[in-house]
Design a protein that fits this description.
137 residues, single chain, Arc Repressor Mutant, subunit A, mainly alpha, globular
């Protein structure tokens, strides 16, 4: 298999088995990485690991996110194939969001990062304080 990451060329991704290269400016994997690792993308994926949610439930769970940003994030993750949007034909409209199989896979990796940060929050905050003290000195 031709691995363009090691060959040093921009991947075209015309071959469905070709590996992307996030370091290459033109590689579409950059946009996907941005969707997954954005401030709200991480939180949406993490929240949906707990199960299916309606839009309003996600807004309550992810405090601080605006309707606009949540909507944009859900659309991006849906376009990437990570989130499934299910609209039930009832009045009033009932829409639910859940993770696809690839969404569960990427969300599990996000969960590892979230857990690591939560476990290591005190040393991280101490490092920030030391950095701020050093910069102000």
């Amino acid at each position: 298999m031709n691995n363009s990451a090691t060959a040093g060329t921009d991947p075209t991704l015309t071959d469905k088995f070709q590996r992307g290269n996030v370091l290459a400016n033109s590689c579409p994997s950059r946009g996907i990485l941005q969707d997954v690792t954005s401030r709200w993308g991480v939180l949406v994926l993490f929240a949906l690991l707990q199960g299916t949610h309606r839009f309003s439930e996600l807004r309550k769970t992810i405090t601080g996110v605006s309707e606009k940003m949540l909507s944009q994030t859900l659309h991006a993750l849906e376009a990437d194939g990570f989130v499934l949007r299910t609209a039930h034909p009832v009045i009033p409209p009932h829409v639910e969001y859940s993770l696809t199989s690839s969404g569960r896979e990427v969300a599990a990796r996000v969960e590892e990062l979230v857990n690591w940060i939560e476990v290591n929050i005190n040393p991280i905050l101490s490092a920030r304080d030391e950095y701020a003290a050093h910069k102000s000195a």
